[in-house]
Every structure is written in C-alpha cells, then in structure tokens.
Design a protein that fits this description.
The complex is a heterodimer. By secondary structure, chain A is mostly beta strands. Chain A has one domain: Methylamine Dehydrogenase, Chain H. Chain A is built from 2 helices and 20 strands. Chain B is mostly helical. Helix content of chain B is 45%, strand content 4%. The relative contact order of chain B is 0.18. The chains are: A mainly beta, B mainly alpha.
C-alpha cells in the first residue's frame, strides 16, 4: 500500500498540550490545542524544525473549566471553535477572540453518571439534517448526545440543546459526520448521518432529519468492544475509527439504513 | 474527570516520601529506635483507616496546594520538623518521582502496578523495622487499591490517567538523581519510552466474513528514531530509586533533549547538585549529595507552572544573597471537603523531646 510522508516536524510548545483525545484542530488558518483550562492557538506557518519554541497565543476567557475536547466546525464560509468542558460547551468565532455561546451542561447529562466520573461534555461535530438545517451535536459523560440548530439567516446557533434518543451508556469519546470530516464543504452525496462513539468502544450511526428533540434516530450500532474509540472520521461510505489500543478500523456505511455497518478492515 | 484519582495520587506520593525519609535516616546513621518511630508515625498517619476511607471515596481532584497541605501535616506527624524550604523541596521530589512513573508507564494498568509496587516496598521497609505495627495498615491499603481499580476498563483507566497527568502538567523540577541516571534531560523534561514498536505501521485487511485477507507493513518516517533518545531506566517504575544498595545506572550517550534537539553550546545547564555545591562552597561529600536530593531547586518562573487548577497565586521569589527560591503554595478557597479529610488525619503529638528546626538539624541532633 503506497504511503508517503513529507516531513516530520518536532516543535516545542508552551504551554504544553493536555493529554486529551484529539487535542489538535485547525480553524481559520491556525492550529489550536487545549492546555488544561485554556485554548491555545498558533499559526501553521510558524511550525518549523529549528527547535525554536512556537509562538503560542493563549485564549483569554473568563471561564476556567477543564477542557475535554477542542473541535473546529465549519459551515460554508463560517467556522467556529467548539470547546467541550466539565461545565458544558463554549462556541467561539474562528479567530478565537469572541466567545459567541456558552451552553451549560444539560441537567440530563449529569444524571446517571457513574460515581467514578464528574460530569463533563466531550466530542462535537456539525451535521446537516435532511431538511437542510445544520446542527451542532455534542456528547456528555453520561453517554447523552445533544443537538443545537444553526440559523443561517442569523449566522448563529439558536435555541437550547435537545437530546438525541438514549443509546450510549458510557461517556462519549468522539462525534463525527461526513460534513464534519469535509470541513463544511457540502456535496450532494454527503448524507445526513452522524456517527458517535463511547468509552466502552461502541459506535452508533444516526440519521438526522431535522434539529430538535425528534430530529435524530438511531440507524444502527456496533457493539462495544471494550477498546474505546478515541477519534472518528466519516468519508463517503466509510467510518474511520481510531481505538485507544492503537488500531485504526474502517467500517463500511453502504446500505446502513436498516442494513447494519460492515467492518472493512 | 475521574473521581478516583486522589487515592492513587496520595498513596504514590506518600510512598515516595517514605522512600526519601528512609534513605535520609539510614544515611545519617540515626539510631534504629528513632528511625523506626519516624517511619511508623508517618505510615500510620498516612494509612489510618478512617483517613483512607475518606480518601477512597469518589471526589474531585485536589489542587497542588491542597495536596501539599496534606503532606505538610504528614511530614510533621512525627518527631521530625521540616522548614518551609525543606518541605517545598521534599514535595517537589515526591512530585517528580510520581510524574516520572506516570509518564513512563506504557500500559494503562501500569499505574495500578506502580501503586502496588510502592505499597509492597513500603511494607517490606516496615517489616524490616523492630516495630512492625503499621504493616497491617499497608496491607489493608493494598487490598483496597486492588478492589477499587480491579475491573476498570481502558476508557476509565485512561480518564484516570488524564486526570493524574493534568495534575502534573508543566511541573518540571530538576532532580540530581534523575539527571545523573538519564531519567530527565538537561532541560528537566522526563525522557519518555519510545512510542515506536514492531506493530506500528501494520495494515491488516479482512474479507467480508471477517477472515484475514492480507497484512502489509507501511514504512513510516516516525520509525526512524534513535532508540538512545528514548532511554528507559531499568529500575521498575515504583521501585525505590533512593535505595543506596541499588546499582547506579549510567545512561547512554545522548545528543541532546529529544524534543528540542542538541544542546546549544551557549546555554549552560546546571544540575541540582552543582547548584547546591555552588551555594555551599564545595561538594562531593555524602551530606551535600544527600541534602541535594532533598533540596531541589525550583526552576525559573517561566519554566514551570503550578497553575494546574487555575491557581495564579504561585510566586517564585527572586534569588537574593544565595538563598534558594521559595515556592509559595496557596490553597483554593473551596476547602470544605479538604477540611473534612484533613480533620480525619490523626496527627499525633510527635513533638515531645524533639528539637525545633528542620530535618537536617534533627538528623544532626539525633
């Protein structure tokens, strides 16, 4: 199988990135990562192999909650940074200078949490429902998932987060969709499927018909394997799932509606 | 975050503290009865059943300053007295020891193995003392650790590890022993095990029935690494590195810090022992070396942060007249639970007959 790499760059960075899942995202020409309670951003062009520390800007925020995931979401020309914390979700503009929305952790997210965990939000992705509504979906430590509509007319997220039907029972680790993986570049064959994964290693595929409490339904799922999925990507007919044990697995999405998901390798 | 991280933190840090104290007591030829009393008092306080029950209850992670308060009281639970500076440095040493063990664990359940090895070593220390009365307490904690963390899945263990590593993030203090034995680079960074193994790059394909179809190996540039840059210390993680009977480890020659590249000639890196020798006007004596283990110099303010939980009150004072930088820990305002836990710490009166002054003076006076 052909595989090429261009260059490997080791760049020292201060402050150091937290050891959370998927702690690197790109937004507005910059790369971003989370340092405990602060998002940090630096220009991609500043990366070099000279050993000189990268110039990092720490994002000023009045919120000092522990960050569990940092995700850039794109919709057409708009881009947002979604930071999931132990208090809920923050949505920033693409320059990461203005905090646009703060979504407190929904009460339902805190219930049913195993006594071993404090509640938190983790994982976020944008999906376009069948009725054309872009929706932000994020996960929580109780296994709950919530969706929030984006108003194209207003250019902002509206309403309150609505829960998806209950399915996952362990903390959500990753959320993705084909639209998320294509960074907001819409094509007709993308579909409106959302993929979610949890700490037990289970994966679920949802279909979004609209935003709101009845907008999503579970299509199919992959049973928990015990090995958590730490990162998800969706590309055309494939789900790419990276597991904590180091394996990257591909699952076929062909004929998912009612047909299940097949593992390709 | 995980609410079962505190027991691992306190138990492992406490065991590291006992390692250091035991080594100092031996090195100073402290009479056996006094050594035995100091160690038993500390272990008995740390593993008191009432305190342990509170510690193992699910709870949020403490801040560094709150954790230090616990060990401040523990260290003073016996006849020994530590100055603020000695306590700071003892705590730094404990922190760096456990941080190293966490970062160099390559498997998730290794955190539990490290904890069990810590406890087993402490139990063997106690069983070598004339008074073995605290041994059952250590055994009880061993059983509790096994019960609490047994059956935890990889996801929970990873959350536990993330919670612990967040506690230690950006904590970087140079330790003479670690520098000399290749555990830390000259910049104070922990040298990690190599991330590469024989399986990295393996691509396995399955057919539609789940049978193995093919297996290929992709050659990755990330595999072209010098193994010496990822030196792995041979001592098991959690073992007593301060044991004088242990064979000293000589690290392989290394080009420089694996992250930043070769050491630039214009930069000078002083080891803790060098700094201590400078302050004392000479070095090489056993006393100076052992004191240097405890007197860990805090690095410059821009080199480490203890802002792990948003505390911005840490202040590293300027060096003046040869005095060591002191590091001030200020507790979080929300101390209710801490107050309850601290209240259950049964710190007995260990002060009778003890002179004032720090550990070093105590050793001289014993």
């Amino acid at each position: 199988m052909p595989y090429t790499e261009k260059a490997m760059v080791k760049a020292p960075m201060k402050p150091s990135p937290s050891l959370i899942y998927n702690n690197l995202t790109a937004c507005g020409g910059s790369l971003l990562y989370a340092h405990i309670r602060q998002a940090c951003t630096f220009a991609l062009s500043s990366l070099g192999d000279s050993g000189v520390p990268v110039a990092v800007r720490k994002v000023d925020s009045q919120h000092s909650d522990v960050i569990h995931s940092i995700t850039a979401i794109h919709h057409n020309a708009a881009a947002f940074l979604v930071i999931a914390t132990d208090a809920g979700v923050q949505i920033w503009d693409k320059t990461v200078t203005h905090l646009l929305h703060v979504l407190p952790l929904p009460p339902a997210a805190a219930s049913g949490t195993a006594p071993r965990n404090a509640p938190f939000a983790r994982g976020a992705a944008i999906n376009v429902a069948a009725d054309g509504t872009p929706t932000l979906v994020f996960g929580t430590s109780s296994g709950g998932l919530f969706n929030l509509a984006f108003s194209e007319a207003d250019g902002k997220f509206v309403g309150t987060p609505a829960p998806l039907p209950a399915h996952h029972t362990t903390p959500i680790t990753a959320v993705s969709s084909a639209y998320q993986s294509r960074q907001g570049k819409w094509t007709e064959d993308l579909g409106c499927q959302l993929v979610t994964a949890d700490e037990a290693g289970g994966i679920a595929v949802w279909e979004g018909s609209s935003a709101g409490p009845t907008g999503y339904k579970l299509l199919t799922s992959i049973a928990a394997t015990g090995d958590p999925v730490v990162s998800l990507g969706v590309r055309r007919d494939l789900i790419v799932a990276a597991r904590l044990g180091g394996a990257v697995q591909l699952y076929g999405l062909v004929g998912v509606a009612g047909g299940g998901v097949r593992r390709a390798g | 975050m995980s609410q079962l991280a505190m027991p691992l933190l306190v138990v492992n840090l406490g065991c590291e503290m006992v390692y250091i104290l035991e080594q100092r007591l031996k090195a100073q030829n402290i009479p056996a009865d006094k050594s035995c009393k100091v160690l038993n008092d500390v272990i008995r306080t740390m593993f008191d059943s009432g305190y342990v029950d509170k510690l193992f209850a699910p709870q949020d992670m403490y801040t560094v300053s709150q954790t230090r308060k616990i060990f401040d009281r523990l260290a003073h639970s016996s006849i020994m007295r530590l100055s603020e500076s000695s306590m700071d440095k003892l705590f730094d040493l404990m922190m760096m020891g456990f941080k190293y063990q966490l970062l160099c664990s390559t498997k998730l359940d290794q955190m539990i193995e490290v904890t069990q090895l810590h406890l087993a070593t402490i139990r063997s220390i106690v069983e070598g003392l004339p008074d073995k009365s605290s041994a059952p307490l250590v055994g009880a904690v061993e059983a509790l650790v096994a019960r609490t963390y047994a059956g935890m899945g990889p996801g929970q263990l990873h959350l536990l590890r993330q919670t612990l590593l967040r506690f230690f993030q950006d904590k970087r203090v140079k330790v003479s022993l670690f520098l000399q034995e290749g555990i830390q680079s000259s910049l104070g960074r922990i040298i990690l095990p190599s991330p590469h193994n024989a399986y990295v790059g393996t691509v396995t394909s399955y057919d539609m029935t789940g049978g193995l179809e093919s297996q290929d190996k992709a050659k990755l540039r990330s595999g072209a690494i010098d193994p010496q840059e990822f030196f792995v210390h041979p001592a098991p993680l959690g073992s007593n590195l301060y044991n004088k009977e242990r064979t000293k480890v000589v690290p392989p020659p290394r080009k420089g810090d694996a992250l930043t590249g070769p050491i630039r000639p214009e930069e000078e890196y002083k080891t803790t022992a060098d700094e201590y020798a400078d302050r004392r006007g000479g070095g090489g004596s056993e006393f100076a070396y052992l004191s240097a283990l405890l007197n860990v110099k805090a690095p410059p303010a821009d080199n480490f942060k203890l802002n792990l939980f948003g505390d911005d009150d840490l202040a590293a004072g300027p060096i003046a007249g040869g005095k060591v930088n002191s590091v001030t820990f200020v507790g979080n305002k929300n101390d209710k639970h801490l107050a309850a836990v601290m209240g259950s710490l049964n710190v007995g009166d260990g002060g009778k007959g003890a002179k004032g002054g720090d550990l070093l003076e105590l050793m001289d006076g014993a």
